[in-house]
Amino acid sequence: MTEQNTQKATLPRDSTPPHPPAHWEADIIAADGGTVHLRPICPEDAEGLVGLMDRSSDQTRYYRFFGPVRRLSERDLHRFTHVDHDARVAFVLVLGDQVVGVGRYDRYPGTDDAEVAFLVEDAHQGRGLGSVLLEHLAAAARERGIQRFVAEVLAQNNRMVRVFLDAGYTPERAYEEGVVHLTFPIAPTETALQVAYEREQRSESRSIARLLTPSSVAVVGASNDEGKIGNAVLRHLLDYGLRGPIYPVNPGTRHVCGVPAYAGIEDIPDDVDLAVLAVPSDEVAGVVEACRRKRVRGLVVISGGFGESGPEGRMAERRLVAAARASGMRVVGPNCLGIVNTDPAVRLNASLAPRVPGRGRVGFFAQSGALGSALLEQARSRNIGLSSFVSAGNRADVSGNDLLQYWATDPGTEVVLLHLESFGNPRKFARLARRVGRTKPVVAVKSGRHVRMTEGLAGTSVAVPEESVAALFASAGVIRVETLAQLFDVGTLLAHQPLPAGERIAVVGNSTAMGVLVADAVLEQGLHLAREAPTDIGAGGSAEEFRVALQEAVDDEGVDAVVAVFLPPLSRGSEEFGRALREVASGADKPIVATFLSAEGIPPEVAVPGEDGTPARGSVPSFSTPERAVIALAKVAQYARWRRRPVGGLPELEGVDERAARDVVLRALASVPDGRVLTDDEVIALLAAYGIPLLGTRTIPDAEAAVAAAEEIGYPVVLKSTAPWLRHRSDLGGVRLDLADADAVRTAFAAIPAGDPVVVQEMAAPGVATVVEVVDDPSFGALVSFGLGGVATDLLGDRAYRTLPLTDLDAAELVRAPRAWPLLDGYRGSEPVDVAALEDLLLRVARLADDLPEVLRLALEPVIVGPANPWHGGRSLVVAGAAARVGPPTARIDPGPRRMRVPGV
């Protein structure tokens, strides 16, 4: 692309460019999984641009400048490196100490159009860097009010034309003298967003694959001292049998564990894919710099003494990650247990765990390094095979989100287990988990529900309230478990048995007492007994009778899953009973769980051996108690129901005027930029713009004004105090209902405690009082909550939450989620309310919150809903009270261009 527009403004040679916004700087994962650093250009980049031109081929320079330009003139260098970060913006891509790419736009004076151009070094073409530059330039241009990009590309430069087309844009094309003129709007579209997400998934997945599939590993800090972690990591790599060379690095010895050692990583004569760092924290920075020069592809930092140690450690941690990313490396850790890949073609145990589980179908992520070893041992003892394991430690760089991206397309992983202590990017987690969960179950245990995270975790995390975590998991289809034991219970079941088609459970066993316990547990967990009573073959029943009973249950079309109970008879062994259970299960398309000899995991008697001897699909998971078996089955059944559910959609809503609502918000913020509570009139206008029915309301100063307002609205009316402690409290005199005439209004006004404004409102017809709220979570945006009104439900916290965006199916689930739902559905013979009207209201509130992130809180209380047959002027639902607060958005709404998480933010 060319620089033909000579009318564009340039800064005077003696001027200092203004500072660009801080968020324009970012670390980026390239298409091949390596990392680069993107930042706005600065005058000091002149030498870097000269080097970029020198390393670029004649063809690359010709495509960029439409001529045989070998070097840039001093004038061009000044113009390119001195920009105003407004009408003229440029970004450079930096790898190590070299500029490997540059992209820029120049605004056409007096228009909303800008010309865009790129140059990427030949050695780095094909890594998707042009697409990254385009995304970030488009985002910056939108911030500056630019609406369209214009590009001029030589007709033979097909690769550059594809950059624009593959980004999801639909440019208008014109041809003139061998040049293609492209013009396209840069407003983010759904197609462009999906393209960015797909590219993000591929690049982040490949970056993790580079870590988990190294062809060579160096252990920096390897030691012959068995008390040091460098010795443990090296021995575990050797013992597990990495399919590639292992290089100990120790300047003080020639051999470590019998393997030739090197004084430094740069002394290794061959390429190194992965470096495991087990050196004191103050030596890590020097090792990272050496790894940069060696062009190592990834780091696992076992060393501690970073973010977990306090502010100085957090700063050192940020410097570590920044240096590694700028050199193309991802970082696991620091302060981590390490990583494991059980693939026979890799066999990687770069961890402190001496023994790892066999090959399996479960991907396992754990934040805690200290807990990680115990988790691996627990999986091994239960005979749960893993595909890969990552302990992220301080999670300064690689996080659970990265692993979700990797496991989403990893053919060796069918189930994902997550042990989470905190979230780095909850909004992204919800998006990824929802997508992964449609094909692979995601099971998570989240610690810190009742205890605040430690200072070390707080350095790389955001605080997420418990109700937000619950809403996030529910919306994303994540199977949430309460304990580590449940994590393994559910994971074992998912890894070896199919999903149930429903919730009808049959019980088969040889113990009446145990059968009754199972039946109780089934009903307790909200499942259904497929038969009136458990099938009991008796303590003296034979293995063949056990097989027949199991097969009958599996063949029964009214059964979705089977719980088998086997207690060992005094006169018989367990092997033949285990064989019967295993053979029925291996041919079944319904899940079977068991309490087999009260064993945990996969006992040998019920294991279907895989190629490497580990239990394969069809093996029967066993639980020490029937209650644990049923709890695991219930959680899996709930997930299966979520997965069967259609994805849902965002329905078109009539009567929505987003511009009118935005005007209300902008006027409020114009008067108080930091935010404020909206007045009643502003709330009425805001809700009306989204078609939300609010009862006629007037704020009045005295009794006579109350009478005048009542006569204007029409009797009967309600008088309410606006005092926060009296709102909705008729028992304290703050609300006076069903006032039929002027005298009643005067009497009621006199009885309401003085000191706060009073409102007059039309009287709603009888119905059920509900509450709808929008609350802003600073970590990932708005939550919509729903519950029934009243002190009892407030006391019990009977509220349900969902994250945005809210689909039609989400709204239906949200209405039915509170425990008090039966009161809306005809409890004890009452007439069911208009649930469709409630769902419509929730969709409108959610749309309002999604459109207007400045609305930090919106409370509709009470929302009176009655039967579906029209009443009170044809409305089955009315909003009787509302309050709202606006302010600057606390969460980034626009997902923005692709970028890696900022360490410590």
Percentage of β-strand residues: 15-25%
- CATH H-level superfamily title of the largest domain: NAD(P)-binding Rossmann-like Domain
Described by strand count, sense and barrel closure, the largest sheet is: 8 strands, mixed
Chain-averaged pLDDT:
89
CATH C-level class of the largest domain is Alpha Beta
The proportion of residues forming helix, as a percent range, comes to 25-40%
Q: What structural class results from the helix and strand content?
A: alpha/beta
Spatial strand arrangement across the major sheet: 1-2-3-4-5-6-8-7
CATH topology of the largest domain: Rossmann fold
Number of domains: 5
Counting DSSP H or I runs of 4 or more residues, the number of helices is 26
Distance between the termini: 37 Å
| Broad shape | flat
Q: Which CATH architecture of the largest domain?
A: 3-Layer(aba) Sandwich
Give the C-alpha Rg.
32 Å
Low-confidence stretches: 2-9, 453-462
Tally of DSSP β-strands: 38
Overview of the structural elements:
The N terminus is likely disordered. The chain has five domains: 167 residues, Gcn5-related N-acetyltransferase (GNAT) (Aminopeptidase, 3-Layer(aba) Sandwich); 287 residues, 3-Layer(aba) Sandwich (Rossmann fold), CATH 3.40.50; 133 residues, Succinyl-CoA synthetase domains (Rossmann fold, 3-Layer(aba) Sandwich); 173 residues, D-amino Acid Aminotransferase, Chain A, domain 1, CATH 3.30.470.20; 68 residues, Dna Ligase, domain 1. The protein starts with 25 loop residues before the first strand and ends in a 19-residue tail after the last strand. It is flat, with a radius of gyration of 32 Å. α7 links the parallel β9 and β10. 49% of the residues are buried. The chain is α/β, with parallel strands linked by helices. The longest helix is centred in the N-terminal third of the chain and has 23 residues. α11 runs parallel beside α12, α16 runs parallel beside α19 and α22 crosses α23. The strands form seven sheets. The protein has an eight-stranded mixed beta sheet with strand order 1-2-3-4-5-6-8-7, sandwiched between helices. A seven-stranded mixed beta sheet has the order 17-16-19-18-20-21-22, with helices on both faces. Strands 28, 33, 34, 35, 36, 37 and 38 form a seven-stranded antiparallel beta sheet that branches. It contains 26 helices and 38 strands.
